[in-house]
Design brief:
Radius of gyration: 26 Å
CATH class of the largest domain: Mainly Alpha
Distance between the termini: 41 Å
Strand order of the largest sheet: 1-2-3
Number of domains: 2
Shape: elongated
CATH topology of the largest domain: Alpha-lytic protease prodomain-like
CATH superfamily of the largest domain: Cation efflux protein transmembrane domain
Helix content: 55-70%
Number of strands: 3
């Protein structure tokens, strides 16, 4: 089993454990903020399951119906995560509004806070693991899952603060007010997750620093060619697709031009993780610039 799959399965187990702890905290206190925190954790379970399915799907090799692989499944998963985050935030806002209309006095807050605190620490550790290894493995699904868990950690911290302040001051209305503020922050983070994923679904180009590095590699390994132009890239999960036109002298043999292409492809694959390179060789009359130096 791949490390990505192991992490995805671990997320499912952690999300179920955290959900149980947070609902127990709500049962102990009757706090709407803790209830909302537990409600948000239900989304964690759905997110973890979705991420696991996306990681498994994206790991499948290309087939006759998906010539470029299945990496975009992770972007679809990340978009779904963003939608679930937004729905959770709206649910929290609803519960906060109802509680604001009729505030309740909290019971057994110390026990409830302790249980919720354990769940928060557990979530914080796990979201750090997911974000770190998700980025290392270029797994958008795992990274999105980690970012979603980070919203849960922020939610829990806000909820804990609200419950403590409400209990110490006797202002029960603070419980739903702080829960509502945290829900608004969750909406913002959900939008950020969706925005990044939509960029991948729209075949967004590689980041500019990566583009600059690609240009540099092509230029430094294209000796014998006249120029390179029409460079295009797109990123899909762990893969970066690179294609461009390489102009060579009309008298150059197919074998010689192929050797240049091999040299460029090897250099790109060694430097750009998951690079998939396609080079279209053209005769010198197709050159867009002149001067003997490869230009991208």
């Amino acid at each position: 089993m791949s490390p990505a799959n192991q992490l995805a399965i671990g997320s499912i187990a952690v999300s179920f454990l955290v959900l149980g702890l947070k609902y127990w905290a709500y049962e102990l206190t009757g706090s709407v903020a803790l209830y909302s925190d537990a409600l948000e954790s239900i989304v964690n379970v759905a997110t973890a399951v979705t991420s696991y399915m996306a990681v498994r799907m994206s790991a499948k090799p290309p087939d006759e119906n998906h010539h470029y692989g299945h990496e975009k499944a992770e972007y679809l998963s990340a978009v779904l995560v963003g939608v679930l985050i937004a729905l959770a935030a709206l649910s929290i806002l609803r519960e906060a509004y109802l509680e604001f209309q009729d505030p309740r006095i909290l019971v057994a807050p110390a026990k409830g806070l302790a249980v919720n605190g354990v769940a928060t620490v557990l979530n914080g550790i796990w979201c750090y693991v997911l974000i770190r290894f998700g980025r290392a493995m270029s797994s958008h699904a795992l990274e999105a899952d980690g970012k979603h868990l980070m919203t849960d950690v922020i939610t829990s911290v806000g909820v804990l603060a609200g419950v403590i302040v409400a209990y110490l001051t006797g202002w029960a209305v603070l419980d739903p007010v702080i829960a509502a503020l945290v829900a608004l922050n969750i909406l913002w983070m959900g939008w950020r997750v969706m925005r990044d994923s939509i960029g991948g679904l729209m075949d967004e180009a590689a980041p500019e620093p990566v583009m600059d590095r690609i240009r540099e590699i092509i230029s430094s390994n294209a000796e014998g060619a006249i120029e390179a132009h029409d460079l295009r890239t797109r990123v899909a999960g762990r893969q970066t697709f690179i294609d461009f036109h390489l102009v060579v002298p009309g008298s150059m043999s197919v074998e010689a031009s192929h050797d240049i292409c091999d040299r460029i492809e090897d250099a790109l694959r060694a430097d750009v993780e998951g690079a998939k390179v396609a080079i279209h060789v053209e005769p010198e009359e197709k050159a867009k610039h002149h001067g003997g130096v490869p230009i991208v």
